[in-house]
Design brief:
This protein is mainly beta. The chain has two domains: 170 residues; 126 residues, no CATH class. 7% of the residues lie in helices and 39% in strands. A hairpin with a 6-residue loop joins strand 10 and strand 11. The longest helix has 8 residues. The mean pLDDT is 88.
Length: 331
């Protein structure tokens, strides 16, 4: 085989970039690790806890860490270099809409609109909800055991929020995934439904049996905790403002159309659309399909937070991996 034929396989060619996110343990600031040596990452069935958020567009990475020099001698000759304050940003558009896509694009608390109680006063983030249905022991991330009468409470196609009652605790709330930070119980008015208002443990009902609910996908936060309840979700809502910052691990994959696969792994990404030069940011973008039809895409922007590499203790913001094809030259 000629050298030119070998080098042709070294050019990564892709149709689109695909995004995957996984939770960061907010208490310990421990990210979900993507190990490029652990085998092929299956794009259609990512390993837990990675969540497939679909194709993205206008993927743009920026790195603005300055490099300076140590100079010495009469002519100030450069004798060494060092890096200044680390800073890296990431911007792209979500093509698909969902709870996590909206939360990441908004950046603050993201809320589930729970089915309201009859006669409750209206509220922009959802009125007082109807009581939840208790989730019984033996439930899993894919099946909720609720006992007799389940079929009368839920039906196929229903969205459910599954989590514990709020019990006046402070700090991060949300089973499996930190969904909000409560600074004081009075701030949320001791609402027993507050955790289910913000939880990421949301799933779509695929089928209902005499005593349980089968979900179309496993709950991202894992099996329900003891004392959890399920409530019907009518919609998702986010807000401009709020004091909570979303923080997730991000993996972005340029799937190989021909040539190798390229992966960009950010251990810690925090939603942050503002920049040093401008605090304004366009939240949505209309992309023409065929007039008058347009796709409404969610614009997302992040700042990369530091991670300490366990192999050598270096402070890192992002890892770029390249998986060459079997026919490609090494360089």
């Amino acid at each position: 085989m000629s050298t030119s034929a070998l080098r042709a396989a070294m050019v990564p060619v892709t149709r689109q970039m695909r995004a995957y996110f996984a939770p960061v343990n907010r208490t310990t600031e421990t990210p979900t690790v993507f190990d490029p040596g652990s085998g092929t990452f299956p794009l259609s069935a990512p390993p837990s806890p990675w969540i497939d958020l679909g194709w993205i567009e206008h993927f743009e990475r920026s790195y603005s860490t300055p490099t300076d020099a140590v100079r010495s001698g009469a002519r100030a000759v450069t004798t060494a270099q060092f890096r200044g304050p680390l800073e890296a940003r990431l911007d792209f558009n979500f093509v698909e809409w969902g709870k996590l896509q909206m939360a990441l694009a908004c950046g603050s608390e993201h809320m589930n609109v729970l089915a309201p109680m009859s006669g409750s006063a209206p509220a922009p983030s959802g009125a007082t909800p109807a009581p939840g249905v208790a989730v019984l022991p033996g439930s899993t991330a894919s099946e909720l055991v609720c006992g007799p009468g389940t079929a009368s409470a839920f039906s196929a196609g229903t969205l459910l929020a599954v989590d514990v009652d709020y019990q006046q605790q402070t700090g991060y709330v949300g089973s499996g995934i930190a969904a909000a930070y409560v600074s004081s119980a009075a701030a949320v008015k001791w609402d027993p439904n507050y955790v289910r208002r913000v939880t990421f443990n949301v799933g779509r009902v695929a089928a209902v049996t005499a005593s349980s609910v089968l979900l179309a996908q496993p709950l991202p936060g894992g099996a329900p905790a003891n004392g959890a309840s399920a409530q019907k979700v009518l919609a998702f809502v986010d807000r401009e403002g709020g004091s909570f910052f979303q923080e997730w691990s991000g993996l972005f994959v340029a799937e190989e159309e021909s040539g190798g696969r390229v992966c960009f792994y950010y251990p810690r990404l925090s939603s942050n659309p503002a920049t040093k030069t401008s605090a304004s940011f366009t939240r949505e973008e209309l992309l023409d399909v065929a007039k008058p039809l347009s796709v409404i895409s969610l614009k997302a922007s992040f700042v990369a937070l530091p991670f300490t590499d366990t192999n050598d203790g270096q402070t890192v913001l992002c890892y770029r991996s390249y998986f060459p094809t079997s026919a490609a030259a090494a360089y």
